[in-house]
Amino acid sequence: MRAEAGENPALQGLPAGALSTQAPLKAPLQAIRQGPEPSSGPALAVLLGLSLSHLLNDLVQSLLPALYPLLKTGFHLDFGQIGLITFVFQGTASLLQPAVGLYTDRRPLPYSLAVGMGLSLAGLALLSAAPAYGALLAAAALIGLGSAIFHPEASRVARLASGGRYGLAQSVFQVGGNAGTALGPLLAAFLVVPYGQGSVAWFCLAALAGILVLGTVGRWYARHLAGAPRIARSSTGAASGRLSRARVVATVAILLGLIFSKYFYMASFSSYYTFYLIHRFGVPVAQAQVYLFVFLGSVAAGTILGGPIGDRFGRKLVIWISILGVLPFSLALPHVSLFWTVALSVPIGLILASAMPAILVYAQELLPGRIGLVGGLFFGFAFGMGGLGAALLGETADHVGIERVYDLCAYLPAIGLTAVFLPRLR
């Protein structure tokens, strides 16, 4: 059946025959870059496939910081060396993601999703058998490279499949990654800590499953690209066209500042929260990993809420609340008991995580037609800030103690005050 005028077949759900070759894509490549028409419904099967693959991708990646207590003891590492591992992993992803996104804006690469997961698989295999610190750094670099290839193109496919509900699509996509990040420490606590570094090899099965899922998503994407005429993309869009170039650049800078505050603070949890709990409260390693899972689980919940709320009430409101709203809880956390430390970590993760879907969609509306660049820039900057934060906070912990790190990081959410300068796009 032929599509009606103005209807984009790329957005039809898989059960309705989205994979059928009888319905060639009529929309131009610009529509693929900018996203679907709001009148169409989300392609839920594609979004769920992306979310599952994101879960598997970030599950693999989250094993690296989850292994830090084990690696610190086994390789006799200090906090600075732990931070360098994170910096290599997240720095690799940070530097390459914008370049990948810019390239795929012009030449989409559907099967690069599976290739990225393959590189993460190689890094995971090396991590399971690394004999020395240098091999750990190489494994971290491979995992970071896989992430750099995966995220920009996956973010583009999520927008393509959104049916106009861009915030919801980004939340579904990103919550998979946060769920994988949350599961990593939990699985490490019950599988890797008891059985050692070599047991990491079993998680290669998760990476293999991710390759299979991404191969299917890549075929879905490729069939739509095959029918799209390649026309020149407009250099400006509706949102950015109403703003001067200087205002657009300033707005992007503000958004990156918010990403800095979010991910620098998140680095204190993802890399050092277990050490903080062990040092301050004397909890066992496995129990500390469970408490880290509680925090990361709240991050996953916040991610799924942020996008739909932004669709309904506006991205700027969500951005404002999700960064600045953490401040009362972050200021209280270093001064309370173990129970309240764990309890306060829940609203911190929940509120802070709701920012990313809203920030990403806001940036896509600010720079329409540059979906890959936006995804690469913001995911890459997030990874970079996480890596830089881990490295600097590790050195800080070596000099002034791990508890002092949380005293200093408590003020980072105050950077959310800069959200008042964001223009209203809609």
TrEMBL record:
UniProt entry tagged with the keyword DNA-binding: no
Span of domain Major facilitator superfamily (MFS) profile: 46-426
Which Gene3D superfamilies does this entry report, sorted A to Z?
MFS general substrate transporter like domains (1.20.1250.20)
Presence of the UniProt keyword Membrane in the record: yes
PROSITE patterns xref list: MFS
Sorted alphabetically, the keyword list is: Membrane, Transmembrane, Transmembrane helix
| Regions crossing the membrane | 133-151, 172-193, 199-222, 243-265, 285-305, 317-333, 339-361, 373-393, 405-422
Q: Please provide an example of a Pfam family that matches this protein in its UniProt record.
A: MFS_1
InterPro entries annotated for this entry? Answer: MFS, MFS_dom, MFS_trans_sf
Indicate what this protein is called per its UniProt record. MFS transporter
